[in-house]
Amino acid sequence: MKEKIPNQLIDKYLRNECSKEEEEFLLNWYASFEESPDPVESLPEDQQEVLKDRMLGKIRGNLKYDHRIISQEKHSKVRGLYPLVSLAAAAFLIFLVFTFYFSNSRREGNPVFQSNVTLSNRSSSLKKYILPDGSSVWLKKSSSLTFLSKPGDKTREVNLQGECFFDIKQDKLRPFIIHSGELCTRVLGTSFNVKAYGGSRKSEVSVVSGKVFVYVQKNGKQEMPGVTLLSDQKAVYQSGSRNIRKEQEKGSDLKIWEKRSVSFKDEPLSNVTAVLSETFNVKINITDQRFQGYTLNADFTGQSLPVILEMISKSLDVNCEITDNRIVITGNSN
């Protein structure tokens, strides 16, 4: 059975007041969960909250410092995102970053959504945003997302023009609704893709996980019976038609959003990209041959390809651009 960690020790660590012995004890405890599916769930609820709401705030503050370390040693092995936390736990930590942002937003009384705020992507590659409620969205090129809800509303509503992948934070009291032309997608918590480009009469909603309800709305009223979609299903709607067509999702475009588990132990980046290419059915090109020798020691458990690439970018100080099913790894210009 894993030994419990006193909250006081976690507090000391966050204040940089731990002795070397205490720090080593804490990190050894953390590392002991490397083979476990989810270390947080093994803790009592109060300790989970301590880790989620405070530890990651401190770790995020160390990111810039760690990038300096990486930039000095990027021709040798890269083992961590942070000075004190192993990359083997990176997938777990990224999840906590999302949780930390969400919990702080609500605790400080920030509005969940501010109407008329627009997120856009004018670049050619995929662009990620974290919404105030903790949900994550990835906008494709020439796409925009506008918040429609006001603070205090019982729903979280946005308007989409273009194409976007959504990973929605569950909130049973406030469903998430995407308006894309005449088509509306209502969800409690799931991951899915919506395609509704201006100038095109065709709209699509494809579900990767969870369940959504898709319907047509005109003048604030539902026009016709909607359809419920589960994983690997999609809805196709042609503007002006009298029905929504429900189909099985057979395309490979959504494969990068499937959550997979891969591990690497001192593997060159060239080997890492080869494994990711095969796992997610994509093409990954490394533009600078110097990066081929960078090594990675990491365990990505239940993560989509964009999240994995985000963690690799931060740990190796490189830039990963995603355009459709093609990924290009370049040097970081910052």
From TrEMBL:
MF annotations from Gene Ontology: sigma factor antagonist activity
UniProt domain FecR protein: residue ranges: 124-212
Name of the protein described by the UniProt record: Anti-sigma factor
Keywords carried by this UniProt record: Membrane, Transmembrane, Transmembrane helix
Chain segments annotated as transmembrane: 81-102
Keyword presence, Transmembrane: yes
Superkingdom of the organism of origin: Bacteria
Organismal lineage: Bacteria, Pseudomonadati, Bacteroidota, Sphingobacteriia, Sphingobacteriales
All residue ranges annotated as the Protein FecR C-terminal domain in the record: 263-329
Record's keyword annotation contains Glycosyltransferase: no
